[in-house]
Design a protein that fits this description.
Elements: E1 3-16, E2 19-32, E3 36-40, H1 47-55, E4 62-67, E5 70-71, E6 79-83, H2 94-104, H3 111-124, H4 140-152, E7 158-162, H5 170-186, E8 190-194, H6 198-204, E9 207-211, E10 218-223, H7 238-254
Parallel strand pairs: 3-8, 3-9, 6-7, 7-8
Antiparallel strand pairs: 1-2, 1-4, 4-5, 9-10
Helix pairs in contact: 2-3, 2-4
């Protein structure tokens, strides 16, 4: 099985009032089809820029982004995105919020099939019975579940998650981590997760990429063995503790607070 996502030697610079801001520097990341890549790194290192490049919302100054063997040169309808802020439309029901992408992305589904598709996803994430509610009637965690359904309703090849659980309390966040595994088992996709939570990266990713300080490159890549369903207790094993320690040290290096020799 080949790579579905290939970030090849990508560099990008933004023009700002203070002069050029060099964000990415010869970044290389590959994600195999069906893989789930968690990306961590210091604040401002270009993680969100990376998601926009994958989605085709931006084109890199240098280098190439490839999805399924095609170079990305424009926005891709085969990419779904979920963000920290669910941005649900208050004047639409939860069901109609989830169906919104089907009004934008070309689909062969009939109206009845679209409704059934949205209802299936809502039931999958535990929101059955909330289809007719308005966003303000749901908790933060429930709104994020609905946002996840919306990002998946058009069956994207790639799902980009830009810190979707960052604003939630710890218990809700962990509950949604488990929901993500359930969803991925039912709705296969290739995932890219941007997060500041190292435990989250270990629990959800089968690969963790640590980006360096700006201008960022892939400083360190950790492969996470994936042997069947994961449970939260997996985060408290000696192996997970060792992986967390390695990732914390890599973040300190990226922040300039440590060097590779410090771990020796």
């Amino acid at each position: 099985m080949g790579n579905l996502i290939d970030i090849k030697d990508v560099s990008h610079t933004f023009a700002t009032d203070g002069g050029p801001l060099h964000v990415l520097d010869h970044l290389n990341i590959s994600v195999p089809e069906g893989g789930f890549c968690a990306v961590v790194g210091p604040s401002g290192c270009g993680k969100s820029t990376l998601t926009r490049l994958i989605a085709g919302l931006m084109i890199p100054d240098e280098g190439e982004v490839w999805l399924h063997g095609e170079r990305v040169k424009s926005p891709r309808s085969t990419v779904g995105m979920a963000f920290q802020n669910p941005v649900l439309l208050e004047w639409r029901s939860i069901l109609k919020n989830v169906m919104l992408p089907l009004e934008i992305v070309p689909t062969k589904l009939t109206r009845k099939q679209q409704v059934e598709r949205a209802e299936f996803l809502l039931a999958l994430v535990g929101l059955e019975g909330f289809e007719d509610k308005k966003p303000s009637e749901l908790s933060g965690g429930m709104r994020q579940r609905a946002s996840l359904c919306r990002s998946l309703v058009h069956s994207p090849e790639v799902l980009i998650l830009d810190e979707p659980f960052g604003a939630l309390d710890a218990f809700t966040r962990e509950d949604l981590w488990q929901t993500m595994h359930k969803v991925k088992a039912e709705e296969p996709f290739t995932g890219v997760l941007i997060t500041h939570d190292l435990r989250e990266s270990l629990f959800l990713g089968d690969q963790v990429v640590v980006m360096s300080g700006r201008p960022a490159h892939a400083q360190y890549v950790m492969d996470i063995p994936f042997d069947g369903p994961r449970v939260l207790d997996d985060l408290y094993t000696p192996e997970s503790a060792e992986r967390l320690a390695i990732l914390r040290h890599q973040i300190e290096i990226a922040q300039g607070r440590a060097t590779a020799e410090d771990a020796a």
